[in-house]
Specification:
Length: 365
């Protein structure tokens, strides 16, 4: 039975195309995961195949073998959490076509930067439900545009309900928590309210900021993940006038500090294996080993299918081809490289690729 599940998961990848993905309804991937297996995280769902942060995308991720589905969370005007990568929704919905909302377009300062568009916090949930999602990067993923107009913006509660029906976990990220706190729409309380309502035990909570994770540590026993990008600093540090950066967080002393309030780190793959100016991989860093010494798990982001999104070492095909940049590269090779370096999980736009790597490595073990 286990062998059939592993082979079915691998077949899901081989059968997948960008538009007509064959989605095998296998048993939940979490059912027989071993401790050393990678945690397979559907990044914004299965955003390689469906418009991100839609139930269509999350359903595809589950069918392709994700252990966890990842909703980025922002708030509506009436304080309901919804799944969007950003609170500005001009690029991911058809809001611009809704003349009744033309006067909602505005410019705001989000985490110290001016942003112009339409913002979830200026809409009630009922108003947002009249919008429809669209593909965020149609030039890179033109086939996904076939699904434009089909899906609503889901609430976090709807995402949790979907995950529980299929026995997978949720991996929510609080987006811009300092900003949402400043306008009286704190994200953490409604997040925990939904998780507690459904007795969710299979979850990670992640944030690029630190203060809200420290606060969550006192309110929840669920594992927390400190996100670490390749440059800059946590915005709550910036707002407080701190001169420390993410570079400080990934030093051994910084990791020991993170371990006082979090269970792991979620890092840009370049933190594990830097790339040079030519896009090729350089020598790995010691981050994974350093984090493990502080008893922190390491989840990397984001593994994408397209050549333009992969290290040069794993690109496939003729660079002169007009479709080279969006053609699928050696994703499984890249994931195996990261797994060999000891990572514990991966955020993947195509979780089927990661599930196939887990199956492949299990067969070899």
């Amino acid at each position: 039975m286990k062998m059939r599940r592993l082979l079915a998961s691998a077949m899901a990848v081989l059968a997948a195309g960008t538009l007509g993905v064959v989605l095998f309804r296998t048993e939940p991937a979490t059912a027989d995961r071993r401790g050393q297996d990678l945690v397979v995280i559907g990044h914004r769902g299965a955003s390689a195949h469906r418009p991100e942060h839609t139930l269509l995308s999350y359903e595809a991720a589950i069918a392709l073998g994700a252990d966890y589905i990842e909703p980025d969370l922002v708030s509506t005007k009436d304080h309901v959490l919804v799944a969007r990568h950003e609170n500005e929704i001009g690029g991911t919905t058809d809001v611009e076509a809704h003349r009744e909302f033309a006067d909602r377009r505005t410019t705001k300062t989000i985490d110290g930067r001016p942003v112009t568009g339409w913002f979830t916090e200026d809409f009630t949930l009922a108003e947002l439900k009249t919008l429809r999602a669209k593909e965020r990067v149609p030039d890179l993923r033109p086939d996904n545009a076939a699904f434009d107009g089909l899906a609503e913006i889901p609430t976090f509660e709807e995402v949790v309900q979907l995950a529980q029906r299929h026995g997978v976990g949720v991996y929510p990220e609080t987006k811009h928590p300092t900003y949402f706190d400043s306008i009286g729409l704190s994200l953490e309380e409604p997040l925990l309210e939904v998780l507690n309502k459904y007795h969710v035990r299979k979850a990670f909570i992640q944030s690029f900021e630190t203060a809200n994770l420290r606060d969550l540590r006192s309110k929840s026993r669920l594992p927390l993940i400190q996100l670490v990008t390749f440059g800059g600093a946590p915005y709550d540090w910036v707002a407080a006038g701190s001169t420390r950066t993410y570079d400080d967080l990934v030093k051994p002393e910084g990791l020991r500090e993170v371990a006082t309030y979090a269970n792991g780190i979620g890092v840009d793959t370049r933190r594990v294996v830097p790339t040079g100016p030519d896009g090729k991989l350089q020598a790995p860093t010691t981050l994974v080993d350093d984090a493990h010494r502080s008893r922190l798990s390491v989840h990397v982001w984001t593994v994408r299918n397209e050549n333009s999104q992969l290290p040069a070492d794993y690109r496939l095909g003729n660079p002169a081809s007009p479709v080279f940049s969006r053609a699928t590269g050696n994703v499984m090779g890249w994931l195996n490289k990261l797994a060999d370096l000891g990572i514990d999980g991966a955020f993947c736009d195509d979780p089927g690729m990661c599930r196939a790597v887990v199956a492949q490595r299990s067969l070899r073990a």
